[in-house]
Design goal:
3 helices; 77 residues; elongated
Length: 77
């Protein structure tokens, strides 16, 4: 495993209480559960940014000058 970094965050008491409940039920450590949640978030965001559906806007250089006027024609022919 790589070098670890520490962070300090403030969260609402209600969220902290829910985290404590999870930790007690799982028999794990709070730090491990938070690290796992962050890892899951990173994986979801990476999958989102790699999804070609969400990259459509990045590829939108068609060279057509009249898209605003006749977009239905291009979409539905």
């Amino acid at each position: 495993m790589g070098k670890e970094k520490s962070i300090t965050i403030g969260i609402k008491e209600s969220i902290y209480g829910q985290l404590e409940d999870i930790v007690q039920k799982q028999g794990s450590k709070l730090e491990d559960e938070i690290a796992e949640a962050i890892k899951s978030y990173i994986e979801r965001m990476r999958a989102y940014s790699d999804d070609t559906f969400f990259q459509i806007g990045k590829a939108g250089k068609s060279g057509l000058k009249d898209i605003a006027k006749v977009h239905d024609k291009y979409l539905y022919r």
